[in-house]
Amino acid sequence: MMTFKEFMEVTKGNVPAAEFLQTFQAKAHLLDDVVDHAPARRDRDHVRIEMDWLLALTENTFVQSYKQQLVPVIVLGMNAWLDANQWQLSVDERKRTAADVVKGFYHEVLYLTALICGGFDHMRAMSEKYRAYDFED
Hints:
mainly alpha, globular
C-alpha cells in the first residue's frame, strides 16, 4: 500500500488530491477484502472507511473539481476488477494470466491524478515509479 507521503509526491503537494487517493486506496482494499472474505474488520474501521469515501465523493475539493474525469476511470476500474475476478477462475490460461493485469486497472486513478496535478511528464514519472504496485503478491 502506498503512503500519504507517496500520494503527496504523486499530487505534487496537492493535499485534497492526496487525501482523495488515500481514501480511494482504503475503499478499494476494503472492497477487495469483502469480496475475498478476508478476516473481518472492526465495525468502526469499516464504517470509518465508508464515511471517508462518502465525504471524499461529496466534499473533497479535488474530487469536486475533477469528478467528470475521475468518476469514469473509477467506474471502468471497478468493471475491470470484476472481470479479473472472474478471469482468475477461468479454464482459459490466457484469461488467468491477464487477470492480474486487468485487476490493476483501478490504479489508473493514481496516474490520472498525477496528470491533473503535474502534467504529462509528471504522470509518466509517477507511472514509471509506482506501476510495480499493480502486481499482486
